Amino acid sequence: MNRFLLLGLGAIAGVILGAWYGWSVSPVTYTQTSPDQLRPEYRADYVLMVAETYSADHDLGQAAVRLSRLGQSDLAGLVRQVAQAYAVAGYPPEDRERLNALADDLARSSTLPSAAP
Amino acid sequence: MKKFLPGVWALVGLLLGFALGVGYAWVIQPARFRGAEPSALQPVYRGEYILLIASAYQATGNLEEARTRLALFPELNPDALSSLAQQVVAAGGPADAARGLARLSVALREETPSPTVFVALASPAISPTIRLTSSVEPTLGLTIPFLPTATRTPTAVSSPTAASEFVLVTKEQVCNPLIFPPLIQVIVQTADGRGVPDVEIRVQWEGGGGRFVTGMKPELSPGYADYAIEPGKVYQISVGNGLTIVRELIAPTCPAATPIIGKQTPVTGGTGGAFTGSWRLVFEMR
Question: Residue B218's domain spans which residues?
Answer without folding.
Answer: 156-263+271-285
